[in-house]
Design brief:
By secondary structure, the protein is α+β, with helices and mostly antiparallel strands. Helices cover 33% and strands 26% of the residues. The chain has 18 helices and 28 strands. The strands form 6 sheets. Strands 8, 9, 10, 11, 12, 13, 14, 15, 16, 17, 18, 19 and 20 form a 13-stranded antiparallel sheet that branches. Helix 6 packs antiparallel against helix 7. The termini are far apart. About 2% of the residues have low confidence.
């Protein structure tokens, strides 16, 4: 016979494996949850475990909902309105009902999803564009005010359909596919080519929705278009988005808030690709950039909340469903026990095969602490368009300093080159405003971005970086910003802390901005400092403003303040200045300027700065020219240097002391830093820090490299081995 030799028997075995794998892949479900997953998931329901507990709670909620009449209203409202929220609830309900059907095999759940899809199939073909669509945008939806939300609906609904399709008759499938699935895919792809092919999170959602639906109903052409663009040239599509939207380190160009949002379509579609076409090795693409992106999203958080960079809602954190899904999928692929720590904090179990693995591992106590460490995340597709630098230390209150010499970040980016934030003891201390938006609060501009997002939140003065002549970076032009980015000169970390320096000479014509920042702990002390050295240089005289937006109550300054207590005026008339009330001014004597505030975490913070007797300090509060009270009334102080060609702002932020109103005690409310001296010579930058007990420390930075270097300071010889060192020089004085 033909199959007699060992070779032919082996060949037969291969054919059988291929046939079996192909047959299994065609069984449903076959997206994020696979047919094989359902068998193990059903078995898990027989035990007393966190997975079965989650299922029971989900089923109970679904049971309540399916006892009510199906409600598929005609689209009317924008984000946050009744119809918008109803359609959101519908796709979530269909998804959950589909899961319950898969795990119970009770047909009432499949029939509920079927009947809701019938209602959508009857309505969708005749729908016009959404009545609340933005007239100035080219991405309107039909069910929702923008096609982005339509794509989110389909990402969930395609999975719901995938979970019930095996229960449906051919007539049912034809009615659903011709009435809703095929029309909505056409609308999101062929009818929306600009958005579908766009390298942007909107494009990611659209391609994921179309590709996943293609897998469910067997339209491979849709999958190819989703992967490579409508013309399949590779100029658009999911693969192009993977190439351009993430840096090699997994940083997403629009910042952590939108990185979190974009993760859902990236990881769900990737999981569907892995289920259906594992030979594509999608999670290995670009050296595993998707898995890196999941870890990076976690890394860009503090105390459970994401760093609020660019257009960010400050309350978003690691428990958001997008990251829950991503962590679940990542653990299923990697078995990284650190991810279990995050999953434990998220307190959500996903009812998928990967979710079952997470639940079992958590029940078995396999979680290990997630390692939050100092890192520099390169920006841009090549990782060379600046970087986002996160400096951390865990010995003095779990501190984080975020330094942002990153790229613009497309339309959601802010004009904040070289800005910074600081966190300590679980709280934001030096703040970023984030986005001016009340997400899904219809009474506030329909839940959309407020006008003040452009007029204030995006402007440079709203951030902790330098403003020249009261104008924002790139004159507030996004297209210019997208074509220019800072250069990171160096990043280094050692036992003393972490330090980075960057510059940009395109934010303003003829002006170069250079900033060095460090998070350090003075040797053999409990004193940690955030160091800031900001040098600005131009061939013409300018006004330079350097703001510090702080969270807390102003306690004291070491200079007199002239407060405006009877009448306030706006600080300026454009570029965000029009939204700042000028509340006080002051000029510190030459030497050291101090501003101290108390944060709600019960700790004091003092910003000590080198001043020349001619640097003004302006105190401000947000709220001017805001008749609808859209902005939060937060405080800042601004170092202002007028009529100067170049200037170096040098300061250190010092956390200290404790205020306990419950037990009525206050400790160390006074700053320990009494003097600062800075100079730069022979390619070495030197910052001398003197404390109240007369101890002196020297931060020495090699500006040109990391080779071993000898230098002299105050007639004493020192050695610098590496990029920077921190020396106790008390005895040498």
């Amino acid at each position: 016979m033909f199959f007699t030799s060992t070779f032919n028997k082996a060949l037969l075995a291969v054919f059988i494996l291929i046939f079996t794998a192909t047959a299994l892949a065609k069984k449903h479900p076959n997206l994020v949850m696979s047919y094989q997953d359902t068998q193990a998931m059903r078995m898990a329901l027989k035990g007393d475990n966190s997975f079965s507990d989650t299922f029971a709670k989900t089923k109970a909620k679904v049971d309540v909902q399916i006892s009510k009449a199906i409600n598929v209203p005609a689209p009317k409202d924008s984000g946050g309105g009744f119809t918008h929220e109803r359609h959101k609830k519908n796709y979530q309900l269909m998804y959950n009902a589909g899961v319950v059907y898969q795990l119970t095999q009770q047909k009432k759940y499949a029939e509920y999803v079927r009947d809701m899809l019938f209602a959508y199939a009857d309505m969708y073909p005749s729908l016009p564009l959404h009545p609340a669509r933005r007239q100035d945008k080219n991405n309107p939806g039909k069910l929702f005010w923008q096609s982005l939300n339509e794509a989110v609906w389909l990402v969930y609904t395609s999975q719901a359909y995938d979970m019930i399709i095996s229960h449906l008759t051919e007539h049912d499938k034809t009615r659903i596919e011709t009435g809703i699935l095929r029309p909505i895919v056409k609308f999101l792809s062929v009818d929306s080519p600009a958005t579908f092919n766009k390298v942007h999170n909107h494009g990611t959602w659209l391609t994921a929705a179309v590709g996943m639906t293609g897998y469910v109903i067997g339209e491979q052409e849709w999958v190819e278009q989703a992967l490579y663009g409508l013309d399949k040239s590779g100029k658009g599509g999911f693969m192009r988005q993977l190439e351009e939207l993430f840096s090699p380190q997994g940083y997403y160009n629009e910042g952590p808030y939108y990185q979190r949002y974009a993760l859902m379509p990236f990881v769900t579609f990737a999981k569907a690709i892995e289920t259906n076409e594992p030979e594509r090795k999608i999670f290995e693409y670009r050296d595993g950039v998707l898995l890196k992106a999941i870890n990076t999203t976690i890394d860009l958080s503090y105390n459970g909340l994401f760093f609020p960079l660019n257009d960010a809602i400050k309350s978003k954190g690691i428990d958001t469903i997008e990251l829950v899904q991503a962590v679940t999928i990542a653990y299923g692929l990697t078995k990284n026990s650190g991810l279990l720590d995050i999953a434990s904090q998220q307190q959500q179990i996903i009812l998928t095969g990967d979710g079952l693995q997470v639940a079992k591992a958590l029940d078995a106590g396999l979680a290990t602490p997630y390692a939050f460490t100092s890192k520099a995340f390169g920006d841009g597709a090549d990782g060379k368009q600046g970087a986002l630098v996160v400096m951390r230390q865990h010995t003095q209150g779990d501190q984080a300093l975020v330094f942002k010499p990153a790229a613009q970040g497309l339309g959601h980016g802010h004009f904040d080159k070289l800005a910074w934030l600081f966190y300590d003891k679980g709280e934001e201390i030096v703040a970023d405003y984030g986005a001016a938006r009340f997400l899904n609060v219809e009474a506030k501009y329909g839940g959309q971005y407020l006008p003040e997002n452009d007029s204030y939140a995006k402007q440079t003065i709203a951030h902790n970086t330098l403003v020249v002549d009261e104008k924002s970076h790139f004159d507030g032009d996004v297209s210019v910003g997208n074509n220019n980015h800072p250069i990171v000169d160096y990043y280094a970390t050692n036992t003393h802390g972490t330090l980075s320096k960057a510059h940009i000479n395109t934010a303003y014509s003829g002006v170069e901005l250079t900033r060095m920042m460090a998070l350090i702990t003075l040797p053999k002390t409990d004193i940690s400092l955030a160091v800031d050295v900001f040098h600005v240089a131009s061939d013409k005289a300018h006004q330079y403003d350097l703001p510090v937006h702080y969270q807390g109550q102003l306690i004291d300054t070491n200079f007199e303040r002239n407060a405006y207590t009877e009448q306030l005026s706006a600080l300026g008339n454009a570029h965000g200045y029009q939204h700042l009330w000028l509340t006080a001014t002051g000029v510190a004597n030459e030497g050291i300027s101090k501003v101290t505030w108390l944060n709600e975490n019960g700790r004091f913070y003092t910003q000590s700065a080198i001043v020349d007797g001619d640097t003004e300090t302006l105190f401000t509060r947000i709220g001017a020219n805001d008749p609808l009270f859209n902005l939060r009334n937060e405080a800042a102080f601004i170092y202002r240097k007028k009529a100067s060609k170049q200037h170096t702002f040098v300061s250190v932020l010092e956390p200290h002391g404790e205020y306990n109103p419950s037990k009525e005690f206050t400790l160390e409310a006074q700053s320990k830093v009494t003097a600062l001296h800075f100079k730069h010579e022979n390619n070495i930058s030197l910052l001398e820090i003197t404390l109240a007990n007369a101890s002196q420390y020297l931060l020495a930075v090699n500006e040109v490299g990391t080779d071993k270097t000898e230098f002299t300071y105050n007639n004493n010889d020192y050695q610098l081995d590496g990029r920077f060192t921190l020396l106790n020089i008390t005895k040498q004085q």
